[in-house]
Every structure is written in C-alpha cells, then in structure tokens.
Amino acid sequence: MELNTIDYRITFFVKDQGLPPQVASQLTRLAKKFKSLVYIDNITQNRSTNAESSLGLLQVGLCPGDFCQLITVGMDAEWANFVLTDLLSSTFDFVASDKLCDFSETITNTYPQLTPQCEVDFHYVKAQAVLSKFEILKGLSQLIYPKESDELLLALIKREERSSTAMAKQIALPHVISSYVEKPTIAIIRSDYPVDWASKMGDVNVIIALVLPEKPTKEMIMAATYLTRSLLSEDFSQRLVHTRQPKGLQALILYAMCQLL
User: Where is the HPr domain (predicted)?
Assistant: First the structure.
C-alpha cells in the first residue's frame, strides 16, 4: 500500500475471552457488506486474514493478550471503521482508533507488552507543510530538548553526514547519544509530503528520532536494539507508515521496544 492509499486502523489487545463466536459471526457478516477490504493483522502471531472469512478468523488465532490491528481500506473504509469500532469496542481493549483513543496507564499496566524495561519519553507532531530534511531535524531537536535544540540539531546533522539514516521504505531513524536526555527519547514527525532523505531507498514520510543518554543502561540499549531491528521488517515498518493515530504509533513503537518482531 502506498501512503496515498487511505486506510483506517483500530489498534487493540485481545481480552481474556478471545473473539466470541457471536461477535465473529457479526464481524464476518458486516465485512461482506462494505465496499472495502476488512482484515485483521495479528502482530503477535504474525498472521493476517480477511474478516469476511469465518475460517480465516479462526486461523488468525486471536488469543488473550495478542496485539492486533483491524484495518479497513477501500471506498467506504472510513464508514466501515466507524461501524466496526462500535461492534468491537466492548470485545477488545482498544489502544487507538479513528473514533476512540485510550492510551493510558491502565492499558500499560494490564499489558506488559507495552512497557519496555526502561522509561521512554515520547513526542509526536504532524507536519502541516512541506518541510526539508534540515527543517525536520530542527523540529525533532526542538521536540526533544527545546533548551539546547541547536546543539542537538548539530549532533543529528553530523550523524546524517556520515550516512543517511533511512531505515526502511518511507521511514528514517536519525539517532544519536546525547547528554541532553536522561532516558531514551523518541520524537516523531509525520508528513503527508515526501521528504528527500538523501537515500537510495527513496523519500520518507515518517521520521523517528531516537536519542539515548550518554551512559545508557543495558536495558536502554536492548530497547533501542529491538526497535531498530524491528524496523528492518517490512511488515512492521509499513504498519508504522499507515498508522496515523499518534497513540497507535506510540503503542507500536513501545511494543517493538519490548521484543524482537
């Protein structure tokens, strides 16, 4: 899927009862009525299925605690997302959707899959205009450490001078170690406009800055390593590209920092 293909996503955890047969039957029936593709991506089990298929819903294996997304893409994808949000909101623990958004301590306390072994600061902003690579790096620096943003910007620029930090299709991961942070800090700028990142991989739309403190602990290094390795997975990187809700994006990144996908 290209970025200009609009899809709608519900990010959720499966509750103790899994997917009850009655709800599965309703989901299959409704999915067939829309002029859009409706499918479930079980991130934990690395399986996906068309929601129109009763057998597929069984095979996707929605087990308690699984981290998933329900995705609608097509002519009436927004309406399908709206209707299915109502159907599934009491069945699953929603992390983020286009209609509902509940990223809270309750969710993170219930699901350790969203709790890395170290604290992580998280910042997000949506670009409102066409920005250059320099402007993106400057914006990331201001998000992470406004007081000394020029120094942090310089460090990010020097890192880019060594080699482009484009990590996957449409994603860049500028990363440095800095005394300006005390814990791993992530800042994301998302742009609907392609940004030239001086990479053979092409332009990027999601830029994720990762800054570690000068003396990172083993847990910090492991969390950062899990994230960078997960970005090498095309499936995971494209989830990030197509997940537009900030809290859904945050959940995906925290999930990746807890285990290797």
Answer: 6-95
Whether residues 128 and 251 share a domain: the answer is: yes
- Asked if 106 and 25 sit in the same domain, the reply is yes
| 125 and 37 in a common domain | no
Where residue 65 falls (left for φ over 0; alpha for ψ -120 to 50; beta otherwise) is left
| Residue 210 CB coordination number (10 Å) | 24
Let me know: does 197 contact 168? Beta carbons within 8 Å: no
Clarify whether residues 27 and 89 are in a common domain.
yes
Residue 203 sits in which domain range? 121-256
At 30 the three-state DSSP class reads helix
Rounded to 10°, the helix 234-242/246-256 angle is: 160
CB 50 within 8 A of CB 39: yes
| Spatial CB neighbours of 226, under 8 Å, sequence gap ≥ 6 | 256, 257, 258, 259, 260, 261
Distances (CA, A) of 226 to 43, 233, 236: 15, 11, 12
Note the pTM of the prediction, 2 decimals. Answer: 0.88
Domain count of the chain?
2
Q: Write phi, then psi, for 42 (nearest 5 degrees).
A: -85, 100
What is the residue-level pLDDT of the chain in tens, covering all 261 positions?
344 567 899 999 998 878 899 999 999 999 999 999 999 999 999 899 999 988 888 888 899 999 999 999 998 999 999 999 999 988 998 887 766 555 555 666 777 888 989 999 999 999 999 999 999 999 999 999 988 889 999 999 999 999 999 988 999 999 999 999 999 999 999 999 999 999 988 999 999 999 999 999 999 999 999 999 999 999 999 999 999 888 889 999 999 999 765
Tokens of 44: 């934990």
